[in-house]
Specification:
Blueprint (H helix, E strand, L loop, with lengths): L1 E3 L2 E3 L4 E4 L13 E2 L23 E4 L8 E2 L13 E5 L4 E3 L3 E4 L3 E6 L2 E3 L2 E6 L4 E3 L2 E3 L3 E3 L5 E3 L3 E4 L4 E4 L12 E4 L3 E4 L9 E3 L3 E4 L9 E4 L4 E4 L4 E4 L1 E4 L2 E2 L3 E3 L10 E2 L3 E4 L30
Parallel strand pairs: 7-10, 8-11, 9-12, 10-13, 11-14, 12-15, 13-16, 14-17, 15-18, 17-19, 18-20, 19-21, 20-22, 21-23, 22-24, 23-26, 24-29, 25-30
Antiparallel strand pairs: 1-4, 1-5, 2-3, 5-6, 26-27, 28-30
């Protein structure tokens, strides 16, 4: 194995290979080690100072000196048995088209996601939880792994568009979405999150009628909810500004509040007071026992 320019490998006790001082991409103070066949745990750390530098970790599987890049299939980033990845305090910055390979994690807990360009894809994990999402450029999250949000704040900068394609689901607690920033957030997934949906600024576009029937929708003054689907989506309560609206159907044609909506869909607002009464279904046959009232008998 050949490593340049800086690494440590405490697992097998190899001394540090260091490249002191900033320099461009060039072989410098490299080193190599011989490994037996099989699995090996190792850590590679790379420290960059002025940019335009890089790190190569290569091998010659034949045991010679003809070093080539190690194929991705030969890396196992985490345990192969289902476990979890907890990076809840780590901020992930996405600056271009990127794939975050979470190995065989059954669930991954991340901190804040900051998207400044490109598309982010999650790979391998069965679910991903994030704290907040901020997009300062038009960007997207690919349809791959279900996503839950703990804080639920999604901020999109002015004139930018963030498209979230995976389903947004509940995590350890119900997910609620709060759209912030004057840009546009597009939710494309078959969402199942059960919390409330708030548009504090800008535009929220829903391409599927998946809001929870027991949830509330709140639209701040001057915001837009685009219902980009055919038909209606049922919610429990609707707030616009400081007003809780009565039960009814709300869309772009509404006489009073139509300016808050675009698209072909509608919101059907039940409010708790207008919900249908719960009905009990009895299995037949059933026996009804009559009530007998006794009266005094005079003899």
């Amino acid at each position: 194995m050949w490593i340049d320019p800086a690494s440590t490998n405490p697992a097998i006790g190899i001394a540090n290979i260091q490249s002191l001082g900033p320099h461009g991409m060039q072989p410098a103070n490299s080193g190599q080690m011989t490994l037996n066949a099989g699995y090996h745990d190792f850590i590679v750390r790379f420290y960059e100072v002025t940019g335009y530098n890089g790190l190569y970790v290569q091998w010659d599987p034949t045991g010679g000196t003809n070093f080539v890049d190690i194929p991705g299939a030969n890396f196992f980033h985490v345990s192969q048995t289902p476990g979890s990845v907890n990076l809840s305090t780590t901020e992930l910055a996405v600056t271009g088209d990127s794939t975050l390979d979470l190995g065989a994690a059954a669930a991954a807990t991340l901190g804040n996601l900051n998207l400044t360009a490109g598309a982010l894809a999650f790979q391998s994990a069965t679910s991903v939880s994030a704290d907040t999402i901020t997009a300062t450029a038009t960007s997207s999250i690919a349809r791959s792994v279900p996503l839950s949000l703990r804080t639920g704040n999604v901020t999109v900068a002015s004139d930018k568009i963030l498209t979230i394609n995976p389903a947004i689901v509940d995590g350890a607690t119900p997910t609620s979405i709060t759209k912030l920033g004057t840009g546009t957030l597009i939710l494309n997934g078959a969402n199942t999150y059960s919390g409330d949906t708030t548009v504090g600024a800008g535009t929220l576009k829903l391409t599927k009628p998946t809001l929870n029937d027991d949830s509330s929708v709140a639209l701040a003054s001057g915001t837009t909810l685009e219902l980009a689907f055919v038909g209606t989506d049922t919610v429990d309560n609707l707030f616009i500004g400081t007003n809780q609206l009565p039960a009814g159907i709300y869309n772009s044609s509404h006489e009073t509040y139509g300016a808050y909506f675009t698209g072909t869909g509608s919101l059907t607002v039940l409010t708790s007071a207008t919900r249908p009464a719960t009905r009990t279904t009895l299995a037949l046959p059933i026996t009804l026992w009559p009530t007998i009232t006794a009266a005094p008998v005079t003899t």
